């Protein structure tokens, strides 16, 4: 009996000791991520990330979590936020309020415009000629009368209903009205194909910002405000340092429009709450190859392990997001809730709803995926939430056009309270909607399915680069390749190899040692360089391009071997992790199929130095023969 109790006590102590060790390991891993974030983004960014994840995961807000689970969650989200830093500006000390529907949002926006003293910068996809829009027009006129800097950006397609007399009057009183990408090529100052649109919805009024899905038109609000209430939208009011980041997106829209109107960044906006919300402003622009918003969304889908909430109009996700979402649901078993529109805003043929029906069908009935359709209004809101801690809200639809053609802007908020607000409105609309079934007529009727299939693939085809030519990356690459071929056509070996060995060594014959990541980048640069100019690809397959340039192997090999033989007369010893000249020569000979290892070892023997020993630390040098082997 005594031994049994002693054994039980020892077991408890062992579990306690191992648990403490595990916690120390987690703390060390978290500190490592924090230091990495500090090195790449600065100590202030690291502090903001740490505070954000610690507020989201602690014993008070996560009473059911063990200490080990808390540290694991902090580590995961710190790494996610650190990875997303490159996709958009971020800050803490913010306050973001969810504004549901035009009846709630429009009075707040009008109040912000009327109280502005320095600036009113407004950008909207749709600005119609209704009485609702007239209240905003009047507010802009009043602001200009007070001496406020007023700028209005309208999309040429969505803003086509903007009254001509409003446009003329605003310009006559000194308000710049920028019409983004007019749709009549050769007759107007277009900046791209007609399908390139500005889909952002932004308002910056002094130190208050607004961003979301809400356009300025009558369909967003109820009849008591002069609208018809056909659209359901969700917007946000932003205060704090994130307003400056939102203003920078507005300035980028000015630049993208081709307008001669220039504005510099607004002054730093002080924090309004301590510690406040962690907010990142993300945007996308296909012409700049900027897909930061979509890449962040894909990263969050891959990282979520508890829950995913998505609401979107025109749910026809591009392939990479669709595959990621299906993988999240089926393979990683993450509980997912989709809310899409149950009616159309197109007449007389509801092409958007038909294409969406085809896309939604593969999610209906998936275990762990709850699909709902909201039919009381057109579901125009665009938001998402992940694990109940991080949320997206903005103009970006979960569709192909938002990814391929539109200027978009959304905000990412790391805050449990904000995520709970998103979840609350999502649950409300989900319960007011209906759940589709594969037995429903629009899924089971063959003729309807065929029509939806055609609508979906017409939409998919219209979103291809062959139609709009917006993605010019491949064209730029082909042009760059042709220029390289032309430059290296006659003396490829001499031109390339001279650049490889032109670096002069100091008297001690040593290079500064850098990280292994830099060495890997060097290796990849060598491989990609020769991949372009070799008829036979590195994987052994033959290049299909008949016009592909063929390297003059004989001349190039002769030049490289001559350079290799001259090494003993110039260099004594080689650094371990950055042997630029030797690595480039040996790798080039290997790719050319002329690397004689015995011959190379003999040539390198003269580079050995007995005054150094191999493997003597990060800043040390290694014997040339050992390095060569």
TrEMBL record:
Entry keyword Repeat: yes
Molecular function as annotated in GO: phosphatidyltransferase activity
Keywords: Repeat
Pfam family, one: Prenyltrans
Protein name: PLD phosphodiesterase domain-containing protein
Entry-linked InterPro entries: PLD-like_dom (IPR025202), PLipase_D/transphosphatidylase (IPR001736), Prenyltrans (IPR001330), Terpenoid_cyclase/PrenylTrfase (IPR008930)
GO BP annotations listed: cardiolipin biosynthetic process
SUPFAM superfamilies xref list: Phospholipase D/nuclease, Terpenoid cyclases/Protein prenyltransferases
Origin: domain of life: Eukaryota
CDD domains associated with the record: PLDc_CLS_1
Organism lineage: Eukaryota, Sar, Alveolata, Perkinsozoa, Perkinsea
Domain PLD phosphodiesterase as annotated: residue spans: 375-402
């Amino acid at each position: 009996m005594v031994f049994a109790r002693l054994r039980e006590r020892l077991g408890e102590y062992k579990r306690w000791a191992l648990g403490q060790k595990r916690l120390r390991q987690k703390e060390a891993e978290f500190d490592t991520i924090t230091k990495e974030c500090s090195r790449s983004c600065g100590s202030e960014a690291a502090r903001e990330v740490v505070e954000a994840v610690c507020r989201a995961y602690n014993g008070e807000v996560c009473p059911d979590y063990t200490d080990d689970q808390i540290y694991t969650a902090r580590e995961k989200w710190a790494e996610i936020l650190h990875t997303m830093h490159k996709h958009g500006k971020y800050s803490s000390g913010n306050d973001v309020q969810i504004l549901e529907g035009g009846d709630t949002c429009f009075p707040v926006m009008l109040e912000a415009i009327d109280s502005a003293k320095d600036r009113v910068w407004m950008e909207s996809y749709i600005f119609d000629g209704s009485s609702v829009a007239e209240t905003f027009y009047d507010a802009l006129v009043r602001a200009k009368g007070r001496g406020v800097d007023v700028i209005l950006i309208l999309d040429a397609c969505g803003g086509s209903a903007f009254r001509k007399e409003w446009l003329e009057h605003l310009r006559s009183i000194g308000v710049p009205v920028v019409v983004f990408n007019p749709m009549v090529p050769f007759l107007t100052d277009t900046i791209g194909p007609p399908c390139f649109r500005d889909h952002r919805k932004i308002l910056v009024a002094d130190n208050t910002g607004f961003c979301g899905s809400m356009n300025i038109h009558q369909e967003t609000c109820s009849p008591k405000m002069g609208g018809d209430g056909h659209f359901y939208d969700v917007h946000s009011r932003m205060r704090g340092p994130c307003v400056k980041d939102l203003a920078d997106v507005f300035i980028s829209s000015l630049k993208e429009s081709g307008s001669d109107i220039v504005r510099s960044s607004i002054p730093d906006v002080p924090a309004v709450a301590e510690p406040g919300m962690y907010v990142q402003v993300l945007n996308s622009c296909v012409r700049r190859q900027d897909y930061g918003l979509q890449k962040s969304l894909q990263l969050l889908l891959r990282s979520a392990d508890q829950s995913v909430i998505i609401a979107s109009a025109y749910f026809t996700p591009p392939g990479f997001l669709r595959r990621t979402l299906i993988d999240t649901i089926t393979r990683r078993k993450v509980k997912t809730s989709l809310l899409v529109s149950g009616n159309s805003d197109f007449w007389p043929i509801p092409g958007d709803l038909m294409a969406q029906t085809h896309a939604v069908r593969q999610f209906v009935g998936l275990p762990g995926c709850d699909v709902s359709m909201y039919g009381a209004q057109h579901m125009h809101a665009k938001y998402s939430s992940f694990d109940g801690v991080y949320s997206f809200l903005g103009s970006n639809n979960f569709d192909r056009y938002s990814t391929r053609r539109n200027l978009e802007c959304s905000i990412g908020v790391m805050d449990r309270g904000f995520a709970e607000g998103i979840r609350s409105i999502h649950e409300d609309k989900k319960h007011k909607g209906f759940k589709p079934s594969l037995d429903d007529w629009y899924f089971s009727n063959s003729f309807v399915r065929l029509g939806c299939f055609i609508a979906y693939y017409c939409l998919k085809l219209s979103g291809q680069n062959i139609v709009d030519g917006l993605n010019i990356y491949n064209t730029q690459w082909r042009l760059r390749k042709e220029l390289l071929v032309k430059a290296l056509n006659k003396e490829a070996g001499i031109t390339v190899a001279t650049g490889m060995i032109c670096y002069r060594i100091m008297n001690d014959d040593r290079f500064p040692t850098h990280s292994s990541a830099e060495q890997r980048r060097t290796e990849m640069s060598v491989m990609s360089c020769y991949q372009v100019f070799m008829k036979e690809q590195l994987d052994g397959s033959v290049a299909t391009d008949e016009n592909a340039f063929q390297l003059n192997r004989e001349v190039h090999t002769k030049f490289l071997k001559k350079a290799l033989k001259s090494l003993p007369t110039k260099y004594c010893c080689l650094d371990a992790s950055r042997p630029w000249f030797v690595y480039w020569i040996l790798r080039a000979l290997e790719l050319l199929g002329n690397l004689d290892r015995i011959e190379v070892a003999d040539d390198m023997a003269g580079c050995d130095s007995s005054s150094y020993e191999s493997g003597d630390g990060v800043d040390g040098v290694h014997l040339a023969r050992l390095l060569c082997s």
